[in-house]
Write a structure and sequence with these properties.
The protein is α/β, with parallel strands linked by helices and about 250 residues long. The chain is built from 8 helices and 14 strands. It has helices at about 55, 75-80, 95-100, 130-135, 160-170, 195-200, 225-230, 230-240, and strands spanning about 1-5, 10-15, 20, 60-65, 85-90, 105, 110-115, 115-120, 140-145, 150, 175, 205-210, 240-245, 250-254.
């Protein structure tokens, strides 16, 4: 497999003979306003897109964890071929229909896409009243013959279901959204550094890829913070040998 980290949660996965585009966000730097009620008011995205959009349009399928603007923006909806296969959570089907996409494949539990088994798992996008306001969010488990099993956690804080998913599906690679995004009146709505540490402790032998960083104004933990905390010494003490915090447009191959 090849995993190209594009920016934020957007990635391009070459897997089992297919090209999968994850959570497409194509907007240029500072194209839309800051997310309200957040610790800073910088316009979004805060950085440019380094991957050529032409490369992101040449895909077999889109995999959407949820329909928030920082995971599927207006520019992507405008430029992507409306005939492309779009796999999403059931609650987003009508949203994407209204956007003009015609080949929707909502996942209740699991489905087979060509050679790939895709299993949807719940993601806890915050806690309490904030979780209700954020709405549904999903993670996905991908498996295929002769490929490592991958767990995209999606937008979630740490909870017991993450432990159960790791134990039940036995993924080899975890792609984890982080950055501790929050509002002024909430706790974090996606994993922070402590959540990452708890996840690593479940099975330190896995390969961990940390994304969802340095792009949107509501994220308060950065790549620098994560790399500083998870020093080689700390990772070695935990027994973690494969830990990646890719830069934008960085390609990882397994």
């Amino acid at each position: 497999m090849k995993f190209l980290h594009v920016r934020h949660a957007t990635s391009l996965l070459t897997y089992a003979g297919s090209k999968l585009l994850i959570d497409p966000v194509f907007s240029a730097k500072e194209e839309f306003p800051a997310i309200a009620l957040t610790p800073n008011q910088r316009k979004n995205p805060m950085i440019d897109l380094k991957t050529p959009i032409k490369e992101l349009l040449d895909v077999d399928m889109i995999l959407s964890t949820h329909s928030h603007q920082d995971h599927f923006d207006a520019k992507a909806k405008e430029l992507l071929d409306k005939r492309v296969d779009l796999i999403c959570q059931p609650s987003d089907e009508e949203t994407y229909k209204a956007d003009g996409f015609i080949n929707l494949m909502p996942v209740e539990e699991n489905l087979k896409y060509k050679n790939i088994i895709i299993t949807r798992v719940d993601a806890q996008h915050g806690s309490g009243q904030t979780k209700e306001q954020m709405g549904p969010s999903s993670g996905y488990i991908l498996s295929a013959d002769d490929e490592p099993t991958i767990y995209f956690t999606g937008d979630t804080i740490f909870n017991e279901s993450i432990k159960k998913n790791i134990e039940n599906y036995n993924p080899e690679i975890l792609i984890m959204n982080a950055g501790s995004p929050k509002f002024l009146n909430s706790t974090q709505i996606v994993m922070n550094i402590m959540d990452i540490e708890k996840t690593l402790a479940i099975n330190p032998k896995l390969k961990f890829i940390i994304v969802h960083l340095d792009t949107f104004n509501h994220c308060i933990e950065t790549r620098v913070d994560i790399n500083e905390y998870f020093s080689p010494q700390r990772l070695d003490k935990m027994g973690v040998k494969h830990f990646y915090v890719p830069e934008d447009n960085e390609l990882l191959e397994f």
